[in-house]
Amino acid sequence: MKDNRRLDLILAAGIFALIALPWYRVRSGFFSFDWLTDIISSDNLWPGLVQALTGRLQLWPVIILLGATLYLRVTQPPEQRGKALSWIGALGLVWMSIEGLSIGLRGWNWGQLQTMFGDVAGQPAFGAGAVVIGVVFALLIAFGQAERGALKGDAFVIGAITLLVLLVATFVFYPLASMFIGAFQDFDGSFTSEGVLSNIVDPKIWSLSCLIGGNCGVAWRTFFLAICTATGSTLLGLCFALVATRTGFRFKKSLRLLTVLPIITPPFVVGLALTMMLGRSGMVTHWIEALTGWELGRWLYGLTGIWIAQMLSFTPIAFLVLIGVVEGISPSMEEASQTLRSDRWRTFKKVSLPLMAPGLANAFLIGFIESMADFGNPLVLGGSGGVLSTEIFFAVVGAQNDPSRAAVLATVLLIFTLSAFLLQRFWLSGKNFATVTGKGDGGRHAQLPKRVGWPVTAIVIFWGAFTLCVYTMVLFGGFVKLWGLDHTLTFDHYIRAFGITWDGGMNMVGVAWDSFWTTLKIALIAAPLTAAVGLLTAWLIVRQNFPGRSVFEFALMMSFAIPGTVIGISYIMAFNLPPLQMTGTAVILIACFVFRNMPVGVRGGVAAMAQLDASLDEASLTLGASSARTMRKVILPLMKPAILAALVYSFVRAITSISAVIFLVSSKYNMATAYIVGLVENGEYGVAIAYSSVLIFVMIAVIGSFQLLVGERRIRRQASPQFAHDKEKIV
Amino acid sequence: MSNSFHGAVEFRNVRKEFGKFTAIPALSLDIKPGELVTLLGPSGCGKTTTLRMLAGLESPTAGQILIGGQDVTRLPADRRDVSMVFQSYALFPHMTVVQNVAYGLEAGGMTAKKSHAAAEDALALVGLKGLGQRLPAELSGGQQQRVAVARALVLEPQVLLLDEPLSNLDARLRRHVRTEIRELQQRLGFTAVYVTHDQEEALAVSDRIVVMKDGHVEQIGTPRDLYEAPASEFIADFIGEANVVDAQVISVKDDQAEVDLGGVILSLPARDAKIGPVRVSLRANAMRVRQSTENTSGVAGVIATSAYLGDHVEYEIDGPLGRIFAVDDESDTPLPEGTAVRLDLRLRGIALIPAGAK
Question: What span is annotated as the signal peptide, if there is one (chain B) (predicted)?
């Protein structure tokens, strides 16, 4: 019987983990397999059963629960044991969380427990054995429910849901919770509200005195900046979208290339290039000063500079969202207006623009969230007046070392972005007029009226040229000896970064190789995992009707609005100590990438899945194929383009992101972006720029070969705004 | 497997709720082996939900479903011995026709070679020999439909489920394919459950028809039962758009009732009617429309609208029975509006509707 086979399988895995795998974390890393030689001699490597027998009473419940499962397996038929199995699984998970969280490295984590139960031996973090048992418990819940007939008794579906919930809880909500708790904890772990109170009322965060001429708090500064950036990038994006779709502009096609830029550009590169143009020793600054004799000074460093950099960075994103909106408006609406005695200007004003309004609001909110979450540009251009994301960073890494302050700042930032996200989600949902009906409504989009067309085209040409200059600067800067002082051309920076010597075989002596390969390796591991988790989730959300589905989907999408900096700080706070200790490993980086980029995979998958008729799945099921087989034989082959897109996207994102990564890198696992930021901080602009250009080219190559592989595929008059911004939403 | 239940289907008090909405309050239904039963009803009546519960694509909130005498209520779709022909056909677009048909066999563990041979046989059965290597997109709508049938039949399921299998075909093809399906079913003798909202289709293919409304079974019977003796006004109206009019039962004797219908006295099967007012189902073709101003036999009336439709003329006629819909397939020239007519009633196509039913 199938029901028994799967249960037997996980029971076997559980028992194996209990008697053969180290229960606790192996310091040298589980996959080095060094522990195999020492598992008998070193008591830290003993498996769970031995640990329990040698006095760790907290493991007994685990063993008892597994024993009970074994008993049920032998004595009860599937229909009758289902409920009990689910309970065992749930109890097991709850117990492991409780004992893991309450007993730390040096005994009880909280004083009250010590007074209640007396001393207890400390324990290290969970290791392979514990993790396997945790998964077994989760699957017990799922299989129990399947045997009771929940979700049509489909064990694969319930299992996938349970594991996903467990993973999201562990890697999204547990860190956030740890961060909030961390805000209230002192260094010794005792609770105090002192740090929180002093930070919450700190005028450096909340002061509004800039309205009367002073300096505003960092929260308000960030907020104003985000409003300005969102407004600017939305307007510019609209101009680009209008020119690309409704004018006879000659270079329309190349405008679309612009949309690729933010995907392949590491976030601080724009800021860096701006410095080289407009900074104190910038090229343009020099020209202007030479021509006019004015002293321009440091105007770029601060909110103005960040604002310009962010507009450069995020206009392409707004463009992308708005192309979908502008194209999505049914041409028949505009044609109807024209046949109703309205000229082009009236049609544009009375029909086209109002129809675009929800899309514009959407682009605005996305720009707002992007700006809030941006870390790279403020880091490079912030100078003394930082924004929330950089303040969080300096609160942990700088001389301040004030985790409580970081947590408070992170919470403030989170509240801002989540509010914007909630607005986007609830206020805008259902207000979109631009939809793909699937019915062929023919017709052509009306051209822009002249009085709009000309100024809009002029703006687009100006901004396009500016963007082009900035990127040229990035490429050019890597070949200049010392920016601002000595403009002789040189390959020095490239050699220093990517030098190779040949004495006695190939030696990669360049300083960048190390982080470069680490980055590629981690991105290559993270990408398939991200795609898999994202698409599996998409499939569950679209095709399976389980209780709590909308909550599940909402929680996932919400994790998108969590700024990278907040993720970084929360991961440190959660995974630095038992029960889950991962800082300094590659696992934490991979987990961070997977759960940060997963929502994109989910959205892409949902969009792709929506185009597959649900009856295809059902046909497969009624033909006797299991859910897993259906997934493999029907869904996956049909989703190939979406899978490839998700793969490429998560690969590229893993390479370019910085905000969360910078908290999580270690000397062993350093990532390219974090390394470049280090170079910038040391003033090695040349090498930093050279390294950045190499990254950009690597990513162009990756995306280019992906495009060749999949080919340009356009589905109907697709671009519903939702879909358009699915693929390229970037934080 | 060849017990006497093989192919039998039973619903025992099945209830289905979607959130707060109760789609099916309590459904009990028996389908005999080798029978083609149609679930018929307007959209939203629960017929598709019923079919999907039988397939295992929805699980009932309460009650039991039995296939071949075995309780399958908790069994997932892939482990039920049924297969289904979908409204959209749901052919896998990335597989060839043969791969589509062999898909279910391979899922059951058959080798690729064997399953492909079986698939070719099934394709021959539905008249698609030699088209196996094409992709579904390269076939016409009718051919795709037959692939879908072959794909389901090749598994030799106890029960074949058909969810509006003809709705994506044009009218002419529909008539042809439904005959084919019926013929195949009678030749191979499998049980089939067929969902449709088209009463003509249901009448044409079914052994028995289950008419559903708001999740209830309104009436179960052979096509003739339903047409000639509708159990309720809803059935009378839904099957063949009958006029439902008021009449008076004058006397009842030996299961025959004397009925006053707009002044004409008829003798009809009583169907438990009592003396007094009664509702009568009056088919549109159960009367002959005759131009006449005289007060002779038949029911008087005046033509309100008339429409010429080639082989017949449709009238709406005002008279003592209210406005009546009538079809005249005998005369070529339509009578103009305002013409005074007499309606001569024929006994075929007139039935009392049992009291108590709506």
Answer: none
